[in-house]
Protein backbone atom coordinates (compact mmCIF):
# COMPACT_ATOMS: atom_id res chain seq x y z
CA UNK A 1 0.00 0.00 0.00
CA UNK A 2 1.24 3.45 -0.84
CA UNK A 3 1.45 6.79 0.89
CA UNK A 4 2.52 8.69 -2.20
CA UNK A 5 0.60 11.95 -2.22
CA UNK A 6 2.45 13.64 -5.06
CA UNK A 7 2.36 13.13 -8.80
CA UNK A 8 5.64 12.76 -10.72
CA UNK A 9 5.01 16.28 -12.06
CA UNK A 10 5.05 17.59 -8.50
CA UNK A 11 1.35 18.44 -8.70
CA UNK A 12 -0.48 17.43 -5.51
CA UNK A 13 -2.42 14.24 -6.19
CA UNK A 14 -5.57 15.69 -4.60
CA UNK A 15 -5.92 18.20 -7.46
CA UNK A 16 -8.52 17.17 -9.98
CA UNK A 17 -8.74 13.58 -8.70
CA UNK A 18 -12.34 13.07 -9.78
CA UNK A 19 -11.70 14.60 -13.21
CA UNK A 20 -8.64 12.44 -13.84
CA UNK A 21 -10.50 9.38 -12.59
CA UNK A 22 -13.36 10.08 -14.96
CA UNK A 23 -11.03 10.33 -17.97
CA UNK A 24 -9.10 7.14 -17.24
CA UNK A 25 -9.87 4.51 -19.93
CA UNK A 26 -9.16 1.74 -17.41
CA UNK A 27 -11.91 2.89 -15.07
CA UNK A 28 -14.85 0.47 -14.96
CA UNK A 29 -18.27 1.91 -15.82
CA UNK A 30 -20.69 -0.63 -14.42
CA UNK A 31 -18.73 -1.68 -11.35
CA UNK A 32 -18.89 0.63 -8.35
CA UNK A 33 -15.79 2.77 -7.89
CA UNK A 34 -15.18 5.67 -5.52
CA UNK A 35 -15.60 9.16 -7.03
CA UNK A 36 -11.79 9.43 -6.94
CA UNK A 37 -8.95 8.71 -4.54
CA UNK A 38 -8.68 5.33 -2.85
CA UNK A 39 -11.26 2.56 -2.31
CA UNK A 40 -10.74 -0.77 -0.57
CA UNK A 41 -12.98 -3.08 1.48
CA UNK A 42 -16.78 -3.13 1.35
CA UNK A 43 -18.17 -2.25 4.79
CA UNK A 44 -21.50 -1.98 6.60
CA UNK A 45 -23.47 -3.82 3.92
CA UNK A 46 -27.17 -3.76 4.59
CA UNK A 47 -30.57 -3.82 2.91
CA UNK A 48 -32.49 -1.36 5.10
CA UNK A 49 -36.12 -0.55 4.34
CA UNK A 50 -35.72 -1.51 0.71
CA UNK A 51 -32.48 0.39 0.16
CA UNK A 52 -29.09 -1.27 -0.27
CA UNK A 53 -26.29 0.55 1.57
CA UNK A 54 -22.72 0.02 0.50
CA UNK A 55 -20.11 1.65 2.71
CA UNK A 56 -16.47 1.32 1.78
CA UNK A 57 -12.93 2.11 2.86
CA UNK A 58 -12.24 5.47 1.23
CA UNK A 59 -9.51 8.07 1.02
CA UNK A 60 -10.97 11.08 -0.82
CA UNK A 61 -7.63 12.91 -0.64
CA UNK A 62 -5.40 10.60 -2.69
CA UNK A 63 -5.29 7.20 -4.41
CA UNK A 64 -3.34 5.88 -1.42
CA UNK A 65 -4.22 3.86 1.66
CA UNK A 66 -3.94 6.61 4.24
CA UNK A 67 -6.31 7.96 6.98
CA UNK A 68 -9.17 5.88 5.70
CA UNK A 69 -12.72 7.29 5.81
CA UNK A 70 -16.00 5.42 5.22
CA UNK A 71 -17.53 6.29 1.85
CA UNK A 72 -21.21 5.54 1.38
CA UNK A 73 -23.48 4.82 -1.58
CA UNK A 74 -27.08 3.62 -1.87
CA UNK A 75 -29.06 1.71 -4.45
CA UNK A 76 -32.53 0.25 -4.83
CA UNK A 77 -31.47 -2.23 -7.53
CA UNK A 78 -27.81 -3.13 -6.76
CA UNK A 79 -26.89 -1.68 -10.16
CA UNK A 80 -27.31 2.11 -10.05
CA UNK A 81 -25.62 3.80 -7.09
CA UNK A 82 -26.10 7.22 -5.53
CA UNK A 83 -23.16 8.73 -3.66
CA UNK A 84 -24.10 9.69 -0.10
CA UNK A 85 -22.22 11.94 2.34
CA UNK A 86 -18.98 10.45 3.64
CA UNK A 87 -20.12 8.47 6.68
CA UNK A 88 -17.03 8.36 8.91
CA UNK A 89 -14.06 10.72 8.98
CA UNK A 90 -11.02 9.96 11.17
CA UNK A 91 -11.05 12.04 14.37
CA UNK A 92 -8.70 14.97 14.91
CA UNK A 93 -7.60 12.95 17.91
CA UNK A 94 -8.90 9.87 19.70
CA UNK A 95 -9.14 6.19 18.87
CA UNK A 96 -9.73 6.61 15.10
CA UNK A 97 -7.30 9.49 14.55
CA UNK A 98 -5.40 7.46 11.94
CA UNK A 99 -8.30 5.83 10.16
CA UNK A 100 -11.77 4.32 10.36
CA UNK A 101 -11.00 0.78 9.27
CA UNK A 102 -13.34 -2.00 8.29
CA UNK A 103 -16.54 -2.90 10.06
CA UNK A 104 -20.22 -3.72 9.85
CA UNK A 105 -23.68 -2.23 10.33
CA UNK A 106 -26.24 -3.77 12.69
CA UNK A 107 -29.83 -2.90 13.64
CA UNK A 108 -29.77 -2.11 17.38
CA UNK A 109 -33.49 -2.06 18.12
CA UNK A 110 -34.15 0.21 15.15
CA UNK A 111 -30.98 2.28 15.52
CA UNK A 112 -28.48 1.69 12.71
CA UNK A 113 -25.17 1.12 14.44
CA UNK A 114 -21.67 0.73 13.04
CA UNK A 115 -18.99 -1.39 14.65
CA UNK A 116 -15.61 -0.61 13.09
CA UNK A 117 -11.89 -0.64 13.81
CA UNK A 118 -10.54 2.72 14.90
CA UNK A 119 -6.85 3.10 14.11
CA UNK A 120 -4.53 5.08 16.37
CA UNK A 121 -0.83 4.74 15.64
CA UNK A 122 -0.29 1.10 14.72
CA UNK A 123 -3.16 -0.14 16.85
CA UNK A 124 -6.72 -0.88 15.76
CA UNK A 125 -9.49 -1.17 18.37
CA UNK A 126 -13.28 -1.64 18.12
CA UNK A 127 -15.37 1.54 17.97
CA UNK A 128 -19.12 2.17 17.65
CA UNK A 129 -21.19 4.89 15.93
CA UNK A 130 -24.98 5.46 15.90
CA UNK A 131 -26.70 6.51 12.71
CA UNK A 132 -29.57 8.82 11.81
CA UNK A 133 -32.75 7.08 10.63
CA UNK A 134 -31.72 7.53 6.97
CA UNK A 135 -28.21 6.11 7.69
CA UNK A 136 -26.62 9.33 6.40
CA UNK A 137 -25.15 10.87 9.53
CA UNK A 138 -23.18 9.09 12.20
CA UNK A 139 -22.28 9.95 15.78
CA UNK A 140 -19.31 8.20 17.30
CA UNK A 141 -19.62 6.94 20.88
CA UNK A 142 -17.80 9.00 23.50
CA UNK A 143 -16.74 5.74 25.11
CA UNK A 144 -14.77 4.52 22.07
CA UNK A 145 -12.86 2.27 21.87
CA UNK A 146 -15.40 -0.16 23.29
CA UNK A 147 -12.74 -2.86 23.70
CA UNK A 148 -9.55 -1.30 24.98
CA UNK A 149 -7.07 -4.08 24.23
CA UNK A 150 -6.80 -7.45 22.52
CA UNK A 151 -7.24 -10.55 24.74
CA UNK A 152 -4.56 -10.73 27.42
CA UNK A 153 -1.80 -13.28 27.49
CA UNK A 154 -1.70 -13.96 23.75
CA UNK A 155 1.02 -12.88 21.33
CA UNK A 156 -1.12 -11.67 18.47
CA UNK A 157 -0.26 -10.56 14.92
CA UNK A 158 -3.12 -8.03 14.54
CA UNK A 159 -6.62 -7.35 15.87
CA UNK A 160 -9.25 -5.78 13.63
CA UNK A 161 -12.40 -6.13 11.50
CA UNK A 162 -15.78 -7.25 12.78
CA UNK A 163 -18.65 -9.59 12.20
CA UNK A 164 -21.54 -8.81 14.57
CA UNK A 165 -24.89 -10.57 14.95
CA UNK A 166 -27.80 -10.96 17.36
CA UNK A 167 -28.18 -14.47 18.72
CA UNK A 168 -30.96 -16.12 20.71
CA UNK A 169 -34.42 -14.77 21.42
CA UNK A 170 -36.31 -12.90 24.10
CA UNK A 171 -34.44 -12.28 27.32
CA UNK A 172 -31.67 -14.67 26.30
CA UNK A 173 -30.74 -12.69 23.17
CA UNK A 174 -27.17 -11.39 23.08
CA UNK A 175 -24.87 -9.67 20.65
CA UNK A 176 -21.93 -11.69 19.47
CA UNK A 177 -18.99 -10.53 17.42
CA UNK A 178 -15.89 -11.94 15.78
CA UNK A 179 -12.72 -9.91 15.52
CA UNK A 180 -10.05 -10.99 13.03
CA UNK A 181 -6.64 -11.81 14.46
CA UNK A 182 -3.78 -14.28 14.53
CA UNK A 183 -1.74 -15.92 17.25
CA UNK A 184 1.97 -15.66 16.53
CA UNK A 185 3.52 -19.02 15.76
CA UNK A 186 0.09 -20.68 15.60
CA UNK A 187 -2.13 -19.20 12.91
CA UNK A 188 -4.91 -16.85 11.94
CA UNK A 189 -8.01 -16.77 14.10
CA UNK A 190 -11.31 -15.08 14.86
CA UNK A 191 -11.85 -14.06 18.48
CA UNK A 192 -15.41 -14.41 19.76
CA UNK A 193 -16.93 -11.78 22.08
CA UNK A 194 -20.36 -11.32 23.64
CA UNK A 195 -22.31 -8.24 24.76
CA UNK A 196 -25.75 -7.09 25.90
CA UNK A 197 -25.46 -3.58 24.50
CA UNK A 198 -22.75 -3.51 21.78
CA UNK A 199 -20.55 -1.46 24.16
CA UNK A 200 -19.55 -3.74 27.01
CA UNK A 201 -17.92 -6.86 25.56
CA UNK A 202 -16.87 -10.10 27.28
CA UNK A 203 -14.13 -12.13 25.64
CA UNK A 204 -15.25 -15.72 25.00
CA UNK A 205 -12.25 -17.23 23.15
CA UNK A 206 -11.00 -18.09 19.66
CA UNK A 207 -13.84 -19.47 17.51
CA UNK A 208 -11.44 -21.33 15.23
CA UNK A 209 -7.71 -21.15 14.62
CA UNK A 210 -5.78 -21.94 11.44
CA UNK A 211 -2.39 -23.52 11.05
CA UNK A 212 0.09 -20.99 9.70
CA UNK A 213 2.86 -23.57 9.42
CA UNK A 214 1.08 -25.65 6.78
CA UNK A 215 1.23 -25.08 3.05
CA UNK A 216 2.93 -21.71 3.35
CA UNK A 217 2.82 -20.04 -0.05
CA UNK A 218 0.08 -22.35 -1.30
CA UNK A 219 -3.13 -20.96 -2.69
CA UNK A 220 -5.11 -22.11 0.33
CA UNK A 221 -2.57 -21.07 2.96
CA UNK A 222 -4.56 -19.52 5.81
CA UNK A 223 -1.96 -16.86 6.65
CA UNK A 224 -0.85 -15.46 9.99
CA UNK A 225 -3.89 -13.21 10.38
CA UNK A 226 -7.52 -13.43 9.25
CA UNK A 227 -8.84 -10.14 7.90
CA UNK A 228 -12.52 -9.30 7.50
CA UNK A 229 -14.02 -12.45 9.03
CA UNK A 230 -17.63 -13.02 7.94
CA UNK A 231 -19.77 -15.79 9.48
CA UNK A 232 -23.13 -16.71 7.95
CA UNK A 233 -25.53 -19.61 7.65
CA UNK A 234 -26.78 -20.99 4.34
CA UNK A 235 -29.77 -23.25 3.81
CA UNK A 236 -31.33 -22.14 7.09
CA UNK A 237 -34.83 -22.35 5.61
CA UNK A 238 -34.33 -25.92 4.48
CA UNK A 239 -35.42 -28.78 6.71
CA UNK A 240 -32.51 -30.82 5.40
CA UNK A 241 -30.20 -28.77 7.58
CA UNK A 242 -27.88 -25.86 7.22
CA UNK A 243 -24.22 -25.18 6.66
CA UNK A 244 -22.24 -22.44 8.34
CA UNK A 245 -19.64 -20.55 6.39
CA UNK A 246 -16.70 -18.60 7.80
CA UNK A 247 -15.10 -16.35 5.20
CA UNK A 248 -11.78 -14.60 5.84
CA UNK A 249 -8.91 -13.06 3.94
CA UNK A 250 -5.48 -14.54 4.58
CA UNK A 251 -2.93 -11.86 5.50
CA UNK A 252 0.71 -12.07 6.47
CA UNK A 253 3.07 -9.28 7.53
CA UNK A 254 1.36 -6.62 5.44
CA UNK A 255 0.73 -8.82 2.40
CA UNK A 256 -2.87 -9.43 1.36
CA UNK A 257 -2.93 -13.02 0.05
CA UNK A 258 -6.40 -14.36 -0.82
CA UNK A 259 -9.92 -14.96 0.48
CA UNK A 260 -10.83 -18.42 1.77
CA UNK A 261 -13.81 -20.00 3.49
CA UNK A 262 -14.44 -22.78 5.91
CA UNK A 263 -17.68 -24.68 5.74
CA UNK A 264 -18.76 -26.35 8.95
CA UNK A 265 -21.00 -26.03 11.94
CA UNK A 266 -21.16 -23.13 14.37
CA UNK A 267 -22.55 -24.10 17.74
CA UNK A 268 -21.96 -22.74 21.21
CA UNK A 269 -18.59 -21.06 21.22
CA UNK A 270 -16.90 -23.04 18.46
CA UNK A 271 -16.93 -23.60 14.75
CA UNK A 272 -16.33 -27.21 13.76
CA UNK A 273 -14.92 -27.13 10.21
CA UNK A 274 -15.77 -29.57 7.45
CA UNK A 275 -13.65 -28.16 4.63
CA UNK A 276 -11.46 -25.23 3.61
CA UNK A 277 -11.85 -23.77 0.12
CA UNK A 278 -10.75 -20.86 -1.99
CA UNK A 279 -13.46 -18.24 -2.32
CA UNK A 280 -12.30 -16.73 -5.62
CA UNK A 281 -9.47 -17.96 -7.83
CA UNK A 282 -8.35 -14.38 -8.47
CA UNK A 283 -6.67 -14.25 -5.04
CA UNK A 284 -6.04 -10.67 -3.98
CA UNK A 285 -8.24 -9.40 -6.84
CA UNK A 286 -11.29 -10.35 -4.78
CA UNK A 287 -10.18 -9.47 -1.28
CA UNK A 288 -11.78 -8.61 2.07
CA UNK A 289 -15.31 -9.59 1.01
CA UNK A 290 -18.33 -8.86 3.15
CA UNK A 291 -21.86 -10.19 2.79
CA UNK A 292 -25.38 -9.50 4.00
CA UNK A 293 -28.71 -11.30 3.79
CA UNK A 294 -31.04 -9.03 1.87
CA UNK A 295 -34.78 -8.54 2.36
CA UNK A 296 -35.39 -11.22 -0.29
CA UNK A 297 -33.42 -13.75 1.77
CA UNK A 298 -30.43 -13.77 -0.61
CA UNK A 299 -26.84 -13.82 0.63
CA UNK A 300 -25.25 -10.91 -1.26
CA UNK A 301 -21.47 -10.51 -1.25
CA UNK A 302 -19.11 -7.78 -2.44
CA UNK A 303 -15.31 -7.89 -2.53
CA UNK A 304 -12.50 -5.46 -3.28
CA UNK A 305 -10.71 -5.74 -6.65
CA UNK A 306 -7.22 -4.46 -5.92
CA UNK A 307 -5.15 -2.77 -8.58
CA UNK A 308 -2.53 -4.56 -10.66
CA UNK A 309 -0.64 -1.46 -11.76
CA UNK A 310 2.00 0.58 -9.98
CA UNK A 311 1.42 3.13 -7.23
CA UNK A 312 2.67 5.80 -9.62
CA UNK A 313 0.13 4.75 -12.27
CA UNK A 314 -2.62 4.87 -9.62
CA UNK A 315 -1.50 8.35 -8.57
CA UNK A 316 -1.65 9.55 -12.16
CA UNK A 317 -5.04 7.95 -12.73
CA UNK A 318 -6.51 9.81 -9.73
CA UNK A 319 -8.34 6.80 -8.37
CA UNK A 320 -7.84 3.15 -7.47
CA UNK A 321 -9.80 0.19 -6.20
CA UNK A 322 -12.96 -1.39 -7.66
CA UNK A 323 -15.91 -2.92 -5.85
CA UNK A 324 -16.93 -6.29 -7.28
CA UNK A 325 -20.32 -6.74 -8.82
CA UNK A 326 -22.73 -7.91 -6.13
CA UNK A 327 -22.89 -11.71 -6.17
CA UNK A 328 -25.33 -14.18 -4.74
CA UNK A 329 -23.76 -16.95 -2.70
CA UNK A 330 -25.56 -20.28 -2.39
CA UNK A 331 -24.63 -23.77 -1.29
CA UNK A 332 -23.83 -26.17 -4.12
CA UNK A 333 -24.73 -29.86 -4.16
CA UNK A 334 -21.05 -30.64 -3.48
CA UNK A 335 -21.14 -28.63 -0.24
CA UNK A 336 -19.11 -25.78 -1.71
CA UNK A 337 -20.21 -22.25 -2.46
CA UNK A 338 -21.76 -21.37 -5.79
CA UNK A 339 -21.48 -17.74 -6.80
CA UNK A 340 -23.29 -15.76 -9.48
CA UNK A 341 -23.75 -12.05 -10.22
CA UNK A 342 -27.15 -10.72 -9.14
CA UNK A 343 -29.79 -10.97 -11.90
CA UNK A 344 -30.46 -7.23 -11.55
CA UNK A 345 -27.36 -6.67 -13.74
CA UNK A 346 -29.65 -7.55 -16.64
CA UNK A 347 -30.93 -3.95 -16.32
CA UNK A 348 -27.72 -2.79 -18.01
CA UNK A 349 -27.84 -5.21 -20.93
CA UNK A 350 -28.25 -3.42 -24.25
CA UNK A 351 -27.42 -4.72 -27.74
CA UNK A 352 -27.78 -8.52 -27.76
CA UNK A 353 -25.40 -10.52 -29.93
CA UNK A 354 -25.69 -14.23 -30.44
CA UNK A 355 -23.62 -16.77 -32.31
CA UNK A 356 -24.99 -20.05 -33.62
CA UNK A 357 -24.72 -23.27 -31.64
CA UNK A 358 -22.69 -26.20 -32.94
CA UNK A 359 -19.30 -27.89 -32.71
CA UNK A 360 -16.44 -25.48 -32.07
CA UNK A 361 -14.09 -26.57 -34.79
CA UNK A 362 -11.41 -23.91 -34.93
CA UNK A 363 -8.45 -23.38 -32.69
CA UNK A 364 -9.36 -19.69 -32.73
CA UNK A 365 -11.84 -17.38 -34.49
CA UNK A 366 -12.22 -13.67 -33.92
CA UNK A 367 -15.92 -12.81 -33.70
CA UNK A 368 -16.88 -9.96 -35.96
CA UNK A 369 -20.23 -9.25 -34.38
CA UNK A 370 -19.12 -9.16 -30.74
CA UNK A 371 -16.64 -6.54 -29.54
CA UNK A 372 -16.34 -4.08 -26.72
CA UNK A 373 -14.88 -3.16 -23.35
CA UNK A 374 -18.21 -3.29 -21.49
CA UNK A 375 -19.59 -6.76 -22.09
CA UNK A 376 -21.60 -9.48 -20.42
CA UNK A 377 -20.99 -12.85 -22.12
CA UNK A 378 -22.89 -16.03 -21.29
CA UNK A 379 -22.04 -19.29 -22.95
CA UNK A 380 -22.66 -22.99 -22.37
CA UNK A 381 -20.07 -25.43 -23.65
CA UNK A 382 -19.69 -29.20 -23.56
CA UNK A 383 -16.15 -30.52 -23.26
CA UNK A 384 -15.16 -34.07 -24.13
CA UNK A 385 -12.36 -35.59 -22.00
CA UNK A 386 -9.06 -33.88 -22.83
CA UNK A 387 -10.73 -30.90 -24.55
CA UNK A 388 -10.10 -27.20 -23.96
CA UNK A 389 -12.23 -24.23 -24.91
CA UNK A 390 -11.06 -20.64 -24.85
CA UNK A 391 -12.74 -17.28 -24.88
CA UNK A 392 -10.54 -14.31 -25.73
CA UNK A 393 -11.47 -10.79 -24.68
CA UNK A 394 -9.87 -7.36 -24.93
CA UNK A 395 -7.87 -8.32 -27.99
CA UNK A 396 -6.13 -5.73 -30.18
CA UNK A 397 -6.55 -6.14 -33.98
CA UNK A 398 -2.97 -7.43 -34.27
CA UNK A 399 -3.48 -9.86 -31.36
CA UNK A 400 -0.51 -8.39 -29.49
CA UNK A 401 -2.69 -7.76 -26.43
CA UNK A 402 -5.32 -10.30 -25.46
CA UNK A 403 -6.75 -11.92 -22.37
CA UNK A 404 -7.63 -15.61 -22.53
CA UNK A 405 -10.21 -17.40 -20.40
CA UNK A 406 -9.71 -21.14 -20.72
CA UNK A 407 -11.79 -24.09 -19.48
CA UNK A 408 -10.45 -27.60 -19.87
CA UNK A 409 -11.41 -31.15 -18.98
CA UNK A 410 -8.98 -33.76 -17.72
CA UNK A 411 -8.11 -36.64 -20.09
CA UNK A 412 -9.79 -39.12 -17.78
CA UNK A 413 -12.88 -36.91 -17.84
CA UNK A 414 -12.91 -36.60 -14.07
CA UNK A 415 -12.65 -32.86 -13.51
CA UNK A 416 -11.62 -29.61 -15.05
CA UNK A 417 -9.62 -26.42 -14.71
CA UNK A 418 -10.52 -22.79 -15.14
CA UNK A 419 -7.57 -20.68 -16.22
CA UNK A 420 -7.03 -17.01 -16.90
CA UNK A 421 -4.03 -16.16 -19.07
CA UNK A 422 -3.04 -12.55 -18.56
CA UNK A 423 0.51 -12.91 -19.93
CA UNK A 424 -0.50 -10.96 -23.05
CA UNK A 425 -3.15 -8.80 -21.41
CA UNK A 426 -0.83 -5.83 -21.52
CA UNK A 427 2.43 -4.86 -23.18
CA UNK A 428 3.14 -2.60 -20.21
CA UNK A 429 5.90 -4.46 -18.31
CA UNK A 430 4.97 -2.76 -15.03
CA UNK A 431 1.48 -4.24 -14.68
CA UNK A 432 0.72 -7.59 -13.09
CA UNK A 433 0.07 -10.19 -15.80
CA UNK A 434 0.41 -13.38 -13.78
CA UNK A 435 -1.99 -16.14 -14.78
CA UNK A 436 -4.60 -17.52 -12.39
CA UNK A 437 -6.32 -20.88 -12.20
CA UNK A 438 -8.58 -23.07 -10.10
CA UNK A 439 -10.56 -26.27 -10.05
CA UNK A 440 -13.63 -26.46 -12.28
CA UNK A 441 -16.36 -28.94 -11.24
CA UNK A 442 -17.76 -30.89 -14.22
CA UNK A 443 -20.61 -33.34 -14.66
CA UNK A 444 -20.44 -36.41 -16.92
CA UNK A 445 -21.47 -34.29 -19.93
CA UNK A 446 -18.55 -31.94 -19.42
CA UNK A 447 -20.99 -29.03 -19.32
CA UNK A 448 -19.56 -25.59 -18.53
CA UNK A 449 -21.77 -22.59 -17.88
CA UNK A 450 -19.38 -19.73 -18.39
CA UNK A 451 -20.13 -16.08 -17.66
CA UNK A 452 -17.54 -13.40 -18.37
CA UNK A 453 -18.08 -9.78 -17.43
CA UNK A 454 -15.64 -7.32 -18.97
CA UNK A 455 -15.65 -3.77 -17.64
CA UNK A 456 -12.50 -1.99 -18.86
CA UNK A 457 -9.79 -3.10 -16.38
CA UNK A 458 -12.18 -5.23 -14.30
CA UNK A 459 -12.84 -8.83 -15.26
CA UNK A 460 -15.16 -11.23 -13.44
CA UNK A 461 -15.45 -14.83 -14.56
CA UNK A 462 -17.90 -17.46 -13.27
CA UNK A 463 -17.49 -21.04 -14.47
CA UNK A 464 -19.98 -23.57 -13.08
CA UNK A 465 -20.40 -21.27 -10.09
CA UNK A 466 -16.67 -20.81 -9.39
CA UNK A 467 -15.45 -17.23 -9.65
CA UNK A 468 -12.14 -15.86 -10.87
CA UNK A 469 -11.73 -12.10 -10.62
CA UNK A 470 -8.83 -10.07 -11.98
CA UNK A 471 -7.64 -6.79 -13.46
CA UNK A 472 -6.20 -6.15 -16.94
CA UNK A 473 -4.67 -3.01 -18.43
CA UNK A 474 -4.12 -3.13 -22.21
CA UNK A 475 -1.84 -0.32 -23.41
CA UNK A 476 -4.15 0.37 -26.37
CA UNK A 477 -7.45 0.26 -24.50
CA UNK A 478 -9.52 1.74 -27.34
CA UNK A 479 -8.32 -0.94 -29.76
CA UNK A 480 -8.39 -3.84 -27.30
CA UNK A 481 -12.07 -4.62 -27.89
CA UNK A 482 -11.85 -7.86 -29.86
CA UNK A 483 -13.58 -11.07 -28.74
CA UNK A 484 -12.95 -14.57 -30.05
CA UNK A 485 -13.48 -18.25 -29.30
CA UNK A 486 -11.69 -21.47 -30.06
CA UNK A 487 -11.10 -25.03 -28.96
CA UNK A 488 -8.66 -27.90 -28.88
CA UNK A 489 -10.38 -31.26 -28.93
CA UNK A 490 -14.08 -32.02 -29.00
CA UNK A 491 -16.07 -29.00 -27.80
CA UNK A 492 -19.72 -28.19 -28.57
CA UNK A 493 -21.17 -24.75 -28.17
CA UNK A 494 -24.72 -25.02 -26.82
CA UNK A 495 -25.27 -21.29 -26.65
CA UNK A 496 -23.34 -18.02 -26.84
CA UNK A 497 -25.01 -14.75 -25.93
CA UNK A 498 -23.33 -11.41 -25.40
CA UNK A 499 -24.63 -8.03 -24.45
CA UNK A 500 -23.13 -4.59 -24.56
CA UNK A 501 -23.38 -3.23 -21.05
CA UNK A 502 -24.53 0.32 -20.36
CA UNK A 503 -22.71 2.44 -17.81
CA UNK A 504 -24.22 2.46 -14.33
CA UNK A 505 -23.20 6.06 -13.66
CA UNK A 506 -24.28 9.26 -15.37
CA UNK A 507 -21.47 10.82 -17.34
CA UNK A 508 -19.08 13.25 -15.69
CA UNK A 509 -16.87 13.41 -12.60
CA UNK A 510 -18.56 12.64 -9.26
CA UNK A 511 -18.00 14.85 -6.19
CA UNK A 512 -15.32 13.49 -3.87
CA UNK A 513 -17.35 14.75 -0.89
CA UNK A 514 -21.00 14.14 -1.86
N1 LIG B 1 -8.42 -3.28 5.13
C1 LIG B 1 -8.85 -2.51 6.26
C2 LIG B 1 -8.64 -3.38 7.43
C3 LIG B 1 -8.68 -4.74 6.86
C4 LIG B 1 -8.01 -4.57 5.53
C5 LIG B 1 -8.14 -1.22 6.35
C6 LIG B 1 -8.36 -5.60 4.51
O1 LIG B 1 -9.60 -3.15 8.44
O2 LIG B 1 -8.08 -5.66 7.69
O3 LIG B 1 -8.45 -0.40 5.25
O4 LIG B 1 -8.13 -5.15 3.21
Structure, explained:
The protein is mostly beta strands and 514 residues long. It folds into 3 domains: 40-149, Tachylectin-2, Chain A (5 Propeller); 151-293, Tachylectin-2, Chain A (5 Propeller), CATH 2.115.10; 349-501, Jelly Rolls (Sandwich). It has 2 helices and 35 strands. The strands form 7 sheets. Strands 23, 24, 26, 31, 32, 33 and 35 form a 7-stranded antiparallel β-sheet that branches. It has a 6-stranded antiparallel β-sheet with strand order 25-34-27-28-29-30, with no helix packed on it. β1 and β2 form a beta hairpin. The two termini are 25 Å apart. The model is unreliable at 1-13 (pLDDT under 50). Bound molecules: 2,5-dideoxy-2,5-imino-D-mannitol. 2,5-dideoxy-2,5-imino-D-mannitol is lined by residues 40-41, 57, 68, 101-102, 117, 160-161, 227-228, 256, 287-288.
Task: Briefly characterize the structure.
By secondary structure, the chain is mainly β. It is built from 2 helices and 35 strands. 2,5-dideoxy-2,5-imino-D-mannitol binds at residues 40-41, 57, 68, 101-102, 117, 160-161, 227-228, 256, 287-288.
Write the layout of secondary structure elements.
Blueprint: H1 17-23, E1 37-48, E2 51-59, E3 69-75, E4 82-88, E5 100-108, E6 111-120, E7 123-131, E8 138-140, E9 156-167, E10 174-183, E11 187-195, E12 201-209, E13 225-234, E14 243-252, E15 255-267, E16 270-278, E17 287-293, E18 299-305, H2 311-317, E19 319-320, E20 322-323, E21 327-331, E22 337-341, E23 349-354, E24 358-359, E25 365-371, E26 374-383, E27 388-395, E28 403-409, E29 416-421, E30 436-440, E31 447-455, E32 458-463, E33 466-471, E34 482-488, E35 491-501
Parallel strand pairs: 1-19
Antiparallel strand pairs: 1-2, 2-3, 3-4, 5-6, 6-7, 7-8, 9-10, 10-11, 11-12, 13-14, 14-15, 15-16, 17-18, 18-20, 18-21, 21-22, 23-35, 24-35, 25-34, 26-31, 26-35, 27-28, 27-34, 28-29, 29-30, 31-32, 32-33
Amino acid sequence: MTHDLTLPSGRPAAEGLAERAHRDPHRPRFHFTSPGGWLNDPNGLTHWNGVYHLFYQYNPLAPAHHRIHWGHATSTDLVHWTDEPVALVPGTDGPDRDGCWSGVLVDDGGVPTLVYSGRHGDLELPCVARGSADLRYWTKDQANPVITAPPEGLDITAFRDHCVWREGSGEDAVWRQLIGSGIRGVGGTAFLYESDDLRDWRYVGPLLTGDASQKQGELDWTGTMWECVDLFRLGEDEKAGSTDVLVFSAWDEGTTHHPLYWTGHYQGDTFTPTALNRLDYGGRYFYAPQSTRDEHGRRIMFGWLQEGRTDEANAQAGWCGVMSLPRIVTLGADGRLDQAPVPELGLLRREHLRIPAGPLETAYTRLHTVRGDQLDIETTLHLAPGATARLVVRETPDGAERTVVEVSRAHDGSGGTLRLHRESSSLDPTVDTEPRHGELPLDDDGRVDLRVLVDHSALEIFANGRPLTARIYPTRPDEAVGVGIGADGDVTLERFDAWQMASAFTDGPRPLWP
